[in-house]
Design a protein that fits this description.
Length: 372
């Protein structure tokens, strides 16, 4: 039995701990006692401040593998600390820094470090990596969103993960690839309506989710988009233009405050999911190109709902189980590449691709494939 330490016991961190504890010894670490007490008794619980390097080093000392599930702004330094300690890691913090800055260090420390291993980014990278090894791809588009079943105005949205990371979706400029050129476009740009059988019409807008694909893939056209209910995007655009998401301090009655912090304090009580509230994850991945001299189009569709029997949200399942699949790949010796590995590296190898897809399928996370 392997020892796994999970850094972060939020919604997704908790789901991963429960999943991995089925066959491994798991320790969950968080600064919040409130998060830790929600974990079942078969999981060890440790309270620690994960913003401190020495506390991270202490809690991972006996780990065979580490899972990183801290907020994005903490992610880079957390991963660096884990790598410096010589521990293999699979991370879902989606930090804004370039993960390849840690590649030389990971190779020096003989560490396997898999980054961005969630649902988006994560699963679409794995799927793209698989097909990129087997065809010449011309166009790639990934769209994904997690939404509440019950639509409540004005936001029609709730947030299942770190508030800071949510607001970055609306502010961080997006990099896309058009005719083999990397272009930077505003967040929330290029709004289009997309129809899904299960939920009807949603709207998609540009977000900065291509990340490592900008460096690892030579595909002429690539985009990553986020899905929301119609009307949400324009509302967020208006709030952004008002400065509500700004990180620049302003002075109000002699007190300095960041508008983004104020906005978050107002929004997130309203964006918090109620216990047992139903939500879903919807994703569409489109890959077009030439395979064996023939034009080919692959479309993967995912529609995943809150799981009532286990009381596990769809975002926990789709994000967390992709990460735990990768963790088991490493622990079972099926993936052993040293250095930084974005998820597309896993997808290159057929055995890894099939392992992840089957792992998810056994947990009722099903990607439906259509090819033409």
């Amino acid at each position: 039995m392997n020892n796994i330490t999970i850094l972060g016991a939020g919604m997704v961190g908790r789901a991963m701990a429960i999943d991995l504890a089925k066959k491994h010894s798991v320790t969950s670490v968080d600064v919040s006692k409130k998060n830790l007490v929600l974990l079942p008794s078969n999981i060890k619980k440790t309270e620690a401040d994960l913003s401190r390097k020495d506390e991270i080093e202490n809690v991972i000392a006996n780990a065979d593998l580490v899972i990183g599930a801290v907020p994005g702004f903490m992610g880079f330094e957390t991963v660096k600390t884990v790598i410096n300690a010589g521990k293999n890691i699979v991370d879902i913090s989606f930090f804004p820094e370039d993960c390849f800055e840690l590649d030389a260090l990971a190779k020096e420390k003989n560490v396997i470090a898999i980054m961005d291993c969630g649902v988006a980014p994560g699963m679409f990278n794995i799927i793209l990596g698989y097909h990129n090894e087997r065809m010449t791809i011309e166009n790639f588009v990934a769209m994904c969103g997690g939404l509440p079943v019950k639509r409540t105005m004005p936001f029609q949205y709730k947030a299942p993960f770190s508030p800071v990371d949510v607001l970055e979706i609306y502010t961080r400029p997006a990099k896309i690839v058009v005719n083999s050129k990397v272009m930077t476009v505003p967040a929330l740009s290029d709004i289009e309506e997309i129809n899904f059988d299960e939920v009807g019409t949603l709207e998609a807008f540009n977000t900065d989710g291509l990340r490592s694909l900008l460096h690892t893939m030579k595909i002429p056209n690539m985009k990553e988009k986020t899905l929301r209910y119609p009307g949400h995007t324009k509302l967020m655009e208006q709030l952004r233009e008002m400065g509500m998401f700004s990180e620049e301090e302003i002075t109000v009655r002699g007190q300095k405050i960041k508008p983004a912090e104020f906005t978050g304090a107002l929004f997130f009580p309203k964006w918090k999911y109620e216990p047992g509230e139903e939500e879903f994850t919807v994703m569409r991945i489109t890959i077009e190109g030439n395979e064996n001299g023939t034009s080919k189009k692959y479309t993967y569709n995912l529609f995943d709902r809150y799981d009532q029997p286990t009381k596990t949200s769809s975002m926990e399942r789709t994000t967390g189980y992709t990460c735990t699949a990768a963790a088991n790949l490493v622990l079972d010796g099926l993936y052993a590449q040293k250095g930084i590995s974005p998820p597309e590296y896993l997808g290159k190898e057929e055995k890894c691709f099939e392992y992840v897809m089957n792992y998810l399928k056994t947990r009722n996370v099903n990607y439906r494939l259509q090819s033409t």
